[in-house]
Amino acid sequence: MTALPEAAPPASPMLQRITTAYDPEQDRMRLAGERADGSTLTLWLTQRLLARLLPALWQWLERHDATGTLVQSAHLPSHRSDALQGFAQQAARAQLPPQPPVTPHERSPQWLVHGIQLSASASGVELRFSGAPGADATAPVGLTLAAQPLRQWLSILQQQYHEAEWPMQDWPRWLAEAAGPAVPAARAMLH
Prior knowledge:
30% of the residues lie in helices and 25% in strands. It is α+β, with helices and mostly antiparallel strands. It has one domain. Helix 2 (78-94) packs across helix 3. The longest helix has 18 residues, at 147-164.
């Protein structure tokens, strides 16, 4: 009898567009996502989970330029590295075009994210959001962000953190200095 090779696990559905907003009733970030087929879902992110994720994202950006190329910023004085990161952050923020928000359908699944698996490469980062083990609607879903969309999402998250009055003392100086005026609510999304 010939054994068939095991099938590779199915890839997580990937989000094509997202809208991130703070929900004061939940005291969580709401990530409304849209897949390529037009289906939508809502992921809820806690402050605690984001506090674990964000430093890894900042560190990836500090090691890569706008195109994802690895840079040797460790050899630069911190003030110069902060300045370069701040300029890149301001440029990404300025290029965030206004777009309509992702609006989940009435019956779209929604769940609390229990874990995020981060995969990083030269081209960007991939996040795989997963829910509670054994729950039906919590099959992992992915989001891939190159350097510029990642910077734009961080700007949006930073604005939402301010709105939530969540602590920001651990955010890098280059991100805080690049914040500038708040992004209008209609622009607080990433596509």
